[in-house]
Design brief:
By secondary structure, the chain is mostly helical. It is built from four helices and no strands. Helix 1 runs antiparallel to helix 3.
Length: about 70
Amino acid sequence: MALFLASMLVFASGTILFLKITNVLYRVVDWVPTNVVDEVHTYAGFVISGLAVIHIYLNWPTLKSYFKLLKR
Ligand code: HEM
């Protein structure tokens, strides 16, 4: 759930930042403070990096079995 929520935060904040720097839909995202969205994007990204390592560690046997299937 934490990995999913952090991913949603990175996706939403990244989209808002993209709209801001490209001036697309400027009025829709104008009210959102850029520095806050920027920080959310950066730190949620760090959270994903850490959780991704734990997620892969916990699911390592299953992940390894996918490659065994390819060898057959
Ligand atoms: C946004 C990123 C991700 C989310 C939210 C997510 C979520 C989940 C969830 C909810 C499960 C089920 C856990 C369980 O059955 O106990 C799962 C299983 C798994 N995930 Fe992820 N995942 C993400 C990214 C990844 C990535 C990038 C990989 C591969 C490198 C990966 C590999 C796996 C594997 C191998 C399993 C086990 C599947 C199985 O038991 O059949 N996941 N993931």
